[in-house]
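Handout, section 3.2

Students often ask what a structure token actually looks like in practice. Rather than define it abstractly, here is a full record for MFS transporter. The first block is the sequence as you would receive it.
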Amino acid sequence: MLNKIKNEIGQFNKQPHNFRILVLTNLVYAFVLPVIDIFVAAYVMRNSNDPVKVVVYQLTIYTGIPLTFLLNGVLLRYFNIKSLYAAGMMLSAVSMIIMMSLKTLNLTGIGIAGIIMGISFGFYWANRDYLALATTSDHNRNYYYGLETFFYTIIAVVVPVFIGWFIELHHGNTEIHKAYKIITGLVLLITVIASVVCYKGSFGNPVNNKYIYLKFHPLWNRLLVMALLKGLAQGFLVTAPAMLIMLILGKEGTLGTVQSAGAVFAALIMYILGRFTGPAHRIRIFTAGLVLFALAALLNGILFNKTGVLLFMLCLLIAKPLLDLAYFPIQFRVIDVVSKIENRGEFAYILNHETGLYAGRFLGAGTFIVLAYALSTEIALRYAIIIIALFQLASVMVAKKIIRQANLLAKVNSIN
């Protein structure tokens, strides 16, 4: 066992310097992500008891992201990419500080906190995606995302349990609010550490400063369809687990425990897949993730009780990283190909990709809000996920065509 661990460490050390620094930066920041994804939504739910406000918060986040992608493209002409990346990480703590300072969770306050969190995500993901693209190649991207997912999932074992039960140790609204403030302080500290690690890398800014184009290669337009379908799920699934657990199971401690259950198993699966699979296996991985996601949605919709929520979370725990493990390398492979054919900078495609995701996120979150207002919150929580999961299954055929065309174009144009 010790020899195997040494071999895996050796495999990591063989990777380029920037590859390792980027993984380590994201590893540190990974301690923040469960707080942002789960407990901020739980905080809004606890203090407003209104699932629609949670979705409105998420929509303001998703509105801030594409706008910041655009702003990031402009700022890259004047600032080092490491500075913008670090700013994105630290702004997530600023957003939480604003949220905790609100005396009343009205839509205005939630919207402001959401926009700032969206700006944070925009700087973080715009620069992270570009750096991941620039520091990896098609042959080691499965390994990169498998490694990242492994660490994220292991951290998801510790952070939700610790935070969930830490909150439950406090009684009364005042004490619980104090617990959330302490967590926010820790988030700020972690983002500072992640920023320091980021500065150890020798990352360079994109060379081409033109990022906005109106027309793209047909292959890229196909990928935007795939991005829209991915966004459909993102628009709802970031907050749905917190809403379901707070409504049906009721406490943050249970929320943390459910998030952690099965995470070690999921982490090992992701690492093995990332380590030992290649480009030829991405469709199978993607299909497995979508089928598991559809199963999770059906179980939640049919049962809609404590058992249903637990099964939903366990399926989702494996489905989400499977989808990411396949999706990002497919996206980057298409960027590799079309950027060479159209002679454009890679960041132009990262920026444009966000518009496809935003359209999907807006439709996904909008589906929930319409169902909640027109029918009921319960119907929205039960059936919106099923509707989205069925649409998501169409991604398999889209992905197959994209990979086939990308490989053909790469061969014709002699692109590695």
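Discussion prompt for tutorial groups: The chain has one domain: 9-204+213-411. How would you have guessed this from the sequence alone?
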